[in-house]
Write a structure and sequence with these properties.
about 20% helix
């Protein structure tokens, strides 16, 4: 990919908060994860040129720098001049055009027919060329929309909650297809989502956005393993979070669960909370480290896991086989000191 760089540093005053986003992307696939209404889509639309920020810079460097937006130098390229592909939530296909016409819609006049047939083949749309969008399933529509974007070789692809309107089965399938479709794409792709599984599966790097501000950015695995802050832990799906009182360098008391824990790294003065992921408990003996008594725990059966809630409110998720409907809660559970996440407010 050479030395490519996408630079986004924008500010915009919105009704609920001020959007203030600053990041650089040097490779591959970025995810922007955050709750609804935190400024994720607004960030994408600013990169695409659909929305104009109040101030800032958006630029792409490939062999040379292409400035999309620069408030100081009064530069604001129209969307069609940016060579950015935007996959809308509803795909925005032209209803009165066939599949092949939709795929060709972004190409310049006198385009090479082979581009369209290559995209039809690549996105498994053979046999659907003459159909109209209303005659296609949601998954087929998404493939047509992606084929249309990739046909004109954009530098950047923006994906705005691409799976939000789909049922679970289709979602899984399309997620895998999307990851595969973009494997050969050597530009940048940015996906906005509030679904942590999508973010984890799709993105090499992750930004966590809350009320218009970036509260974490970095390698996706790293952010899930070391969220650092309470809100980041919450948004990456950590179910158990408690305020703490420090006892010594490696021991603390959880104020919400009334349990004392040993941790594996030294507790720095700015640590105010701990997090424990719901899958990180294991059956234990009474004298193990970090033991919890399960008396009066309740269990709820889900298709693929048991959800156990301890009397003090801690959640344990335990994987199960589809045909298993019996489960004895062990008398004691433990959590490994290294699986206790230290968090700042």
């Amino acid at each position: 990919m050479g030395n490519k760089l996408l630079r986004v540093n924008i500010q915009k005053k919105l009704k609920e908060f001020d959007l203030d986003v600053d990041f650089e992307l040097k490779r591959g696939r970025l995810g922007i994860l955050g709750p609804s209404g935190c400024g994720k889509s607004m960030t994408l639309k600013s990169i695409a040129g659909i929305v104009t920020p109040d101030k800032g810079v958006v630029s792409l460097t490939t062999d040379e720098e292409k400035v999309y937006f620069d408030s100081n130098n009064k530069i604001n390229l129209k969307p069609q001049k940016r060579n950015v592909g935007y996959l809308f939530q509803n795909y925005a296909l032209f209803p009165n055009m066939t599949v092949e016409e939709n795929v060709a819609a972004g190409l310049s006049k006198g385009y090479d027919e082979r581009i369209v047939s290559e995209m039809i083949r690549r996105f498994h749309l053979e046999g659907l060329e003459k159909r109209y969008p209303r005659q296609l399933s949601g998954g087929q529509q998404q493939r047509v929309a992606l084929a249309r974007i990739l046909a004109y070789s954009p530098d950047v692809i923006l994906l705005d909650e691409p799976f939000s309107a789909m049922d679970t089965f289709l979602k899984e399938q399309l997620r895998i297809e999307l990851v595969n479709s973009l494997k050969d794409f050597d530009g940048f792709s940015i996906m906005v989502t509030h679904n942590r599984d999508e973010a984890f599966q799709f993105c090499d790097e992750l930004i966590i956005l809350d009320k218009g501000k970036i509260i974490a950015k970095g390698d996706t695995n790293e952010i899930f393993e070391n969220p650092g802050k309470v809100q980041v832990a919450r948004l990456t799906g950590c179910k158990n979070i408690s305020r703490i009182e420090v006892i010594d360098d490696y021991h603390l008391k959880s104020l919400d669960w009334g349990v004392t824990f040993e941790v594996s790294e030294e507790i720095s003065p700015n640590i105010t909370h701990i997090g424990i992921r719901a899958h990180d408990f294991a059956p234990a003996e009474k004298n193990d480290v970090n033991v919890l008594d399960t008396t009066n725990a309740t269990k709820l059966e889900m298709p693929f896991e048991w959800e156990i809630t301890l009397a003090n409110g801690l959640w344990w998720k335990y994987d199960k086989q589809i045909r298993e409907h019996e489960f004895e809660i062990p008398p004691y559970l433990k959590v490994d000191p290294k699986n206790i996440i230290l968090l700042e407010e």
